[in-house]
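Hi support team,

I submitted a single chain yesterday and got back a structure, but I'm not sure I'm reading the token output correctly. Could someone confirm the output below corresponds to the sequence I sent? I've pasted both exactly as they appear in my results page.

Thanks,
R.
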Amino acid sequence: MGLLAVALGPVVAPRVASAASRCTVTLSADGNTAAVQRELDGDRRRPVVCLRPGHYKGARLIASRSGELRAVGEGRVILDAGGRGRALTVVAPGVELVLAGVTLTEGSVENGGAIAVEAKSRVRLQDSWITRNKASDHGGAVYVRAGGRVELVRTRVSVNSAATGSALWVEGDSTIRLVSSLIHDNKSRGGADDSALVVRPGCDAHVLHSTIAYNPGHGIFVAPAGPDATPANLRVDSSIVMGAPDAISMDRAEAGAAHVHRSVLYGRTGFVPYGPACRLELPVFDLENAERYRPTYGSPAIGIGLCADRDSKLDVAGTRRSGRCTAGALEADPIAARKTLAERLKREASDRIEADKAEPNFWPDELEW
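Hi R., thanks for writing in. Yes, this is the structure output for that exact sequence:
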């Protein structure tokens, strides 16, 4: 098995094959991506470019208008930048681009190894992989600035590297949204302000039903705004965030801009407020099987999530979720979940009995009037 296959983990067929009926053109891997770029530059309004499985080399795409790139058929669609640039760059404002079922790999640039959105535009990546990209500066996988918006839905971001912000970097009043996505095993040089996700002042970051684990530094670092800037907003819900030393690192004066609910945090949290359903514990992953970051028997993540968002109905591996779900990107095995919940209920009932026994009796046997 090659290094790329190892980085990507188990093969999951893209859930976008039905898009074939919507294709404006269907392309095959022919050794380069010139045909893909021609379709993005062409005269069709919002083209839907469907890609058959294969290795598309030299993928250094520039999107100046809206459209879609979708995998069709069985097998991976690999957009390979060949270590000589970035797989996708958006520099024009007003672009809305969707990528579905693709793998972005071998990008190498200053900022944003695989994707850079450098204008007020929107990129949505779903059922996809971003792996083995590198940035000499910020954002080994994704770099967003100038009011851009990036959504990662059921997407894996792994084995990317950067000087800081090993996976994701957001600045300049921009937004990043992660739903049922897995951010793991990315690398960086490390440092006091390093993490897998770096959020600069004025930005919004939403981490929903996702897992950030085993990356260097903090899980999420929210940079302090200072007196002349707007603090960033952070929302974490039904997720798992691990980091060292901090799961979430924020300036004390700005911690009120963070909203953390129904999540498992491993690492310090400083002054970041979190809801009563949160757990400050080791998430207990199934590290021996193919999906190493799936919560297993005994995990505090089991049953505490609320997967009401449309994009969260499937986990990152395609498993269907119920409304009351496992926090993080991967749903727990049903048998492990049932056993964990049964033992949790039994333990809670026992704790209530012990608490009742310990309750002091304030009423004397006989009252004197």
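A quick pointer for reading it: The CA atoms of residues 14 and 101 lie 5 Å apart. Let us know if anything else looks off.

Best,
Support desk
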